[in-house]
Design a protein that fits this description.
SGNH hydrolase-type esterase domain-containing protein, about 65% helix, flat, SGNH_hydro_sf, mainly alpha, single chain
Length: about 70
């Protein structure tokens, strides 16, 4: 039950972040939206909660893509 509650909380938190970003016209690097890419491969995790080097590389690429897209 604790995991279900935590997942629901994170979902609400991510939605609030998306709303705040949209309201301010900021750029969002939506790592949560990449869950289907990151979650299935256990090599992306150091443990069940924290990303491994491989998982962090995926996130770093998302940030790089967002930064370089705004530089154009």
């Amino acid at each position: 039950a604790q995991a279900v509650n935590a997942n629901a909380y994170l979902g609400r938190l991510n939605e609030r972040i998306r709303e705040a970003v949209a309201a301010r016209g900021a750029i969002l690097v939506d790592v949560g939206a990449e869950d289907e890419v990151i979650r299935p491969d256990q090599a992306n995790y150091f443990n069940c909660n924290h990303l491994s080097e491989q998982g962090n590389e995926i996130v770093a690429e998302l940030f790089f893509d967002a930064i370089t897209a705004t530089a154009d």
